[in-house]
Automatic annotation (TrEMBL), chain A:
Keywords in alphabetical order: Electron transport, Membrane, Mitochondrion, Mitochondrion inner membrane, Respiratory chain, Transmembrane, Transmembrane helix, Transport
Protein name per Swiss-Prot or TrEMBL: NADH dehydrogenase [ubiquinone] 1 alpha subcomplex subunit 13
Lineage: Eukaryota, Fungi, Fungi incertae sedis, Zoopagomycota, Kickxellomycotina
Domain of life: Eukaryota
Pfam families the record matches: GRIM-19
Transmembrane segments: 31-49
Signal peptide segment: none
Automatic annotation (TrEMBL), chain B:
The organism's place on the tree of life at top rank: Eukaryota
GO BP: mitochondrial electron transport, NADH to ubiquinone
InterPro entries: NDUFA8
Keyword Cell inner membrane tagged: no
The protein, known as: NADH-ubiquinone oxidoreductase
Length: 131, 150
C-alpha cells in the first residue's frame, strides 16, 4: 500500500557469515594407513618366508626319496630279470618237451619277425599245462 | 586245470618252482624287505656305483633280461656285500632305523634321530657319508637339517 517505507530484506550480517565447520573433529586413534599397510606387508612377508622354507624342505625330502629309490632300482631290476629269465627258460623247456614229436617246431620262437625284444604277454606257469 | 582269472586267482598258482638253469652261475638273492633296503639305499648306491651304472647302461641297450644277467649278478653281489658290511659293524643301529622306517610309512623324514645314529656309526666304521645328489650346495643336506615340524 504505502510505498514510502523502504522494503526490508534479510541480509547477511556485517562481515559475512562465519564459516560452517562441517568436517568431523575426532581425535586421531591408532596407526596411520601407511603403517597398517606396512604391518600387513610384514606379516605376509614372514608368512611367505615360512612357505618358502616348507616348500624347500619338501623338495629336498622328495629328492631324497627319489634318490633312495634310484639307488636300489638296479638291484630290484636285476633280481626280477633273473626271475623272468628263469621262468621263460623253464617255459621254453616245457614247450620243447611237449612239442618234441612235431617236426619243424621251434620251441620258444617269437611270434614277431623283428629282432626287438618283446616280453611274453601270457604268464606261462606249470599249472596251466597240467591235466 | 585251474583257469587263470578273477574267480580262481590264487597266488600259488602262479609260482614256477623250476630251479634256475644250470648253465648260469648261482647267485644269492638279497632276500630283504623294503625298509632295510631303503635304510641302506644311499650306502648301497655309493658303494656299488660302478656296478649299478654299468647295469643300467646295459639295460639301456635292450630290455631283454638275458642281456644283462652278468651285470645283474655283480649288482646283487655288491648289494649283499654292502648289507653284510653294514650289519657287521652297525647291526643294532641299522635295525633300529629300518624298524622305525617300517612303522613310519617308510618316510625318511620321520626317522631322523635313528638315521643320525646310524650315519655316525657308519662314518666311524667305514667312512661312508650319505650324500643326496643334486642337493643345493649352499645349504645343509636334508638329513642334516633340523626338521620344521617334528
Amino acid at each position: 500500500m504505502s510505498s514510502s517505507a523502504a522494503p526490508s530484506q534479510d541480509m547477511p550480517p556485517k562481515g559475512g557469515f562465519a564459516s560452517i565447520r562441517y568436517e568431523r573433529r575426532l581425535p586421531r586413534r591408532g596407526p596411520s594407513g601407511v603403517v597398517m599397510f606396512g604391518i600387513c606387508g610384514a606379516v605376509m612377508a614372514y608368512g611367505w618366508y615360512r612357505v618358502h622354507l616348507g616348500l624347500d624342505e619338501r623338495r629336498e625330502l622328495d629328492r631324497e626319496k627319489m634318490w633312495s629309490r634310484i639307488h636300489i632300482t638296479p638291484l630290484l631290476l636285476a633280481e626280477s630279470d633273473r626271475d623272468e629269465y628263469r621262468r621263460n627258460w623253464a617255459a621254453v623247456e616245457r614247450e620243447r618237451e611237449i612239442m618234441k614229436d612235431v617236426p619243424g617246431w621251434e620251441a620258444g620262437k617269437s611270434v614277431y619277425s623283428g629282432r626287438r625284444y618283446m616280453p611274453t604277454v601270457i604268464a606261462n606257469v606249470p599249472i596251466h599245462q597240467q591235466k | 586245470m585251474v583257469n587263470p582269472g578273477y574267480k580262481h586267482f590264487k597266488g600259488e598258482d602262479w609260482v614256477d618252482p623250476t630251479p634256475p638253469p644250470a648253465h648260469l652261475p648261482t647267485v644269492d638273492e638279497v632276500g630283504c624287505t623294503g625298509a632295510p633296503l631303503k635304510s641302506a639305499s644311499f650306502f648301497i648306491g655309493s658303494m656299488c656305483k660302478e656296478y649299478n651304472e654299468d647295469f643300467m647302461l646295459c639295460k639301456n641297450e635292450t630290455r631283454d633280461p638275458e642281456h644283462c644277467l652278468l651285470e645283474g649278478r655283480k649288482v646283487t653281489r655288491c648289494a649283499i656285500d654292502a648289507l653284510q658290511k653294514i650289519q657287521s659293524k652297525c647291526l643294532s643301529e641299522f635295525r633300529t632305523h629300518w624298524q622305525c622306517l617300517d612303522s613310519k610309512n617308510q618316510e625318511l623324514g620321520r626317522c631322523r634321530q635313528q638315521e643320525k645314529v646310524l650315519n655316525q656309526c657308519l662314518f666311524a666304521a667305514f667312512g661312508w657319508k650319505k650324500d643326496v645328489p643334486g642337493s643345493p650346495a649352499n645349504k645343509p643336506q636334508i638329513h642334516e637339517r633340523k626338521p620344521l615340524t617334528s
